[in-house]
Amino acid sequence: MLVPAESWGMNVAIVLFEGFDELDAVGPYEVFQLAGRYGGDLSAELVTLEPTERIVARSGMRVEPDGTLDGTDVDLLLVPGGGWNDDGPGVRVEYDRGEIPDRLAQYHTEGTAVASVCTGALLLAKAGLLDGRPATTHHTALEDLRELGADVVEDRVVDDGDVLTAGGITSGFDLALHIVARECGESVADSVARELEYERVI
Q1: Is the whole model's pTM more than 0.70, yes or no?
Q2: Is 183 helix (H, G, I), strand (E, B) or coil?
Q3: Region for residue 48 given its phi and psi (left: phi exceeds 0; alpha: psi -120 to 50; beta: otherwise)
Q4: What is the dihedral sign for C-alpha 22, 23, 26, 29?
Q5: Fewest 10 Å CB contacts: which of 53, 79, 115, 185?
Q6: Strand runs (DSSP E) across 49-191, as ranges?
Q7: Hey, what domains does the chain have and what are their CATH numbers?
Q8: Which tens digit of pLDDT belongs to each residue from 1-39?
């Protein structure tokens, strides 16, 4: 039975940018919110670096963010992928711009855990957070990730403590469920997976 959580212990901030992949962000967001409804001390917010009314995702979905990263109490930063191999907005543009990687590095230095889905790992790499560490990403970007200094592991989820990465797109469900299990317990993760009718693979 769904129960409201009385207070939030762990807050996940999912950082959105123009051209992010919809499922990379929305999948984990729903997992985290369901975990809170099933009694886990966890919640999630969709944030941007700068104030904006809406963000347009890779396939055209328009999202109204909850607020900005600076205005959010955050224990874990999650970065979606999308657009690494495209000409339009997405990870490649954000990689070249450098603002998201800079903020990831800052927050991580201050003790915030970080995670990525799909090609979001390239932004973690640009931030210097994957140097010599095990990590994964979408199969089309594994060589790029390796060239950026990561110890590439071809798993759906790689948990290296305060840095977690997931493979392509649907791996975001596995990452989020893994985080729920780690932070809230296996029973909460199992309840969320049943609600989603998703078979846990890790």
Answers
A1: yes
A2: helix
A3: beta
A4: negative
A5: 53
A6: 55-56, 62-63, 67-68, 76-79, 113-117, 134-135, 151-152, 157-159, 163-166
A7: 10-196 (3.40.50.880)
A8: 333 344 448 999 999 999 999 999 999 999 999 999 999
